[in-house]
Task: inverse folding
């Protein structure tokens, strides 16, 4: 069983930056692809970014491409989401997720709130 704990959320002005962290425990972190999702009030959860288990290819939603960067440090059992040029529409609860095989994500964190003020 893998436990994921997000941190790093907060309140930031538009144009600012934040780095989210996702600390993993209880499994073989290096064998999992990692992803970030977000859910804004009244909206469905949406995909933000995904990175392969080795920290290799990464994939992004069009809405964040060029502004967000996903990474993972297998030595620290931690995934990151660096967010720059933040916009009010980026306001959401951000969740990290772990995927062992192709298909559904197997484990989810509890989420961290990101609020971007205009």
Result:
């Amino acid at each position: 069983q893998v436990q994921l704990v997000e941190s790093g959320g907060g309140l930031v002005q538009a144009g600012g930056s934040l780095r989210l962290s996702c600390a993993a425990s209880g499994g073989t972190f290096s064998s999992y692809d990692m992803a970030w999702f977000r859910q804004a009030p009244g909206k469905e959860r949406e995909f933000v970014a995904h990175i392969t288990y080795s920290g290799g290819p990464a994939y992004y939603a069009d809405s964040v491409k060029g502004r967000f960067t996903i990474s993972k440090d297998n030595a620290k059992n931690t995934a990151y989401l660096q967010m720059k040029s933040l916009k009010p529409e980026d306001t959401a609860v951000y969740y990290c997720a772990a995927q062992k095989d192709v298909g559904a994500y197997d484990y989810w964190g509890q989420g961290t709130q990101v609020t971007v003020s205009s």
Observations:
- The chain has a mean pLDDT of 96.
